[in-house]
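Summary for the steering committee. The consortium agreed at its last meeting that each partner would contribute one worked example illustrating the joint modelling workflow. Our contribution is presented below. We chose a case with several input lines so that the handling of multiple components could be demonstrated. No manual editing was applied between input and output; the record is shown as generated.
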Amino acid sequence: MIVVKFGGTSVGDAEAIERAASIVLTKRERHPIVVVSAMAGVTNALLAIAEQSARGQLIGAIRSVEGLRERHMQEAERLLGDTEECAELCGEMSAMIDELAHLTEALNTLGDVTPRSLDAIASYGEQLSSQLVVAAFRRCGLPAEHVDARDVMITDDAFTRAEPNVDAISEASQRLLAPLARDGRIPVLGGFIGSTTRHLTTTLGRGGSDYSAALIGAALQTEAIEIWTDVDGMLTADPRVVDGARLLERVGFDEASELASFGAKVLHPMAIYPAVRVGIPVYVLNSRRPEGKGTLITFEAPRRPVTAIAGKSGVTLIRLRTPRMLLTEGFMRTTFDVFHRHRASVDVVATSEVSVSLTIDDASRLDALLPDLRELGDVSIERSRGIVAVVGADLSAGGEHMARALRALSDTPVHMLSLSATGINLTMVVDGEHVAPVMRRLHEEFFGDGALSS
Ligand code: ADP
Ligand code: ASP
Ligand code: MG
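What follows is the complete predicted structure of the assembly.
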């Protein structure tokens, strides 16, 4: 068995879905299980609908709901023509969109949006796309069977970033997916969405379809997990930011996770972990160019001093200063305990004898955690920062690559600098607007025409 996951652009319209079908057709012998994202842009539209309706802009929100109805119906008609299957599918999708419209109205009445209602609304993207893909695959001669992801992806109730329950997922995958796949049928389910044991809809966080695919792959010990997307694989940098980014044919799991965590959105940061644990190879491939080699992510991969450059903005830098920290045992534990209690995940850390600086991605917990942090010392907050990461197997060896990275920063103000313990990642916190230019300079330094190492 293999898991084949298609991202938003790879199921973004009728042509893309047909391309996905022809990819799956070539994999039939390998007993594929298909995981799909919402059509490109749909999750963003759904989250905007929730916010809009809760803010009282019901007319605008309902207009967007109708826009989603039209888009899904139109692609269904392009895929299936004027057929009975099309009428049936459109009936099902329309019923879902009616439910979505009711939910939207309810949020408007309540005037408030909770993480639980956000997940309920966000889940419609994958609910719709998975039904559409099943009908299209059948039309192309594939024996596709829809499976409700919420029966498989069992999670806790941390809405908007739910934690998967690996044992329950494993049991459900064995029960609901494996028999279909073994029987030559093709289970198709939405990624990203799940449900609690009390049947409340949850999501795994943005980009979570990769994570769904990896969890299912790990649960069923599949031969491989294929992540089909809109670029040739993992590249030396985000091609939307850096011209001339090059394909990495092979990347180590550790490097791939660092890159994903620091902005290489091509893979969800958690997606690799379930696969690493059980040694399943993960491929990243381009659904527009299925003949390409893509990137193979494995435990063992060739080591290069510098593998790639990643970056992200929208980062919050927190500085905590306290003379009390001087020689105080347990201070770090107390500090990190605050973040742990508020479930705020810390990305980069640097310390001195009397201060600690750290960054968080998700500032939504900041207001809640600040009072606790202030009890420990003076706190300052710097929003709109960004992180640039140089990832490689042994950056610090010999000092040459570090020196080149720092030189490439030139006169850019750096607010924090950190080298990971294994020398795999040099992270720099800069102003948000400097992320892209710094990425380009570093890429030119390490991968440009005149670069020596790469
Ligand atoms: P999907 O909808 O298929 O999941 P995403 O938009 O989540 O696709 O991820 C693919 C995008 O990731 C690419 O279009 C690219 O802009 C971005 N990206 C960021 N960093 C990298 C990188 N190092 N290599 C490849 N793509 C990257
Ligand atoms: N549709 C979800 C998102 O846009 C999940 C995914 O595409 O991986 O975040
Ligand atoms: Mg993605």
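The first strand starts at residue 2 and ends at 6. The first helix runs from residue 14 to 25.
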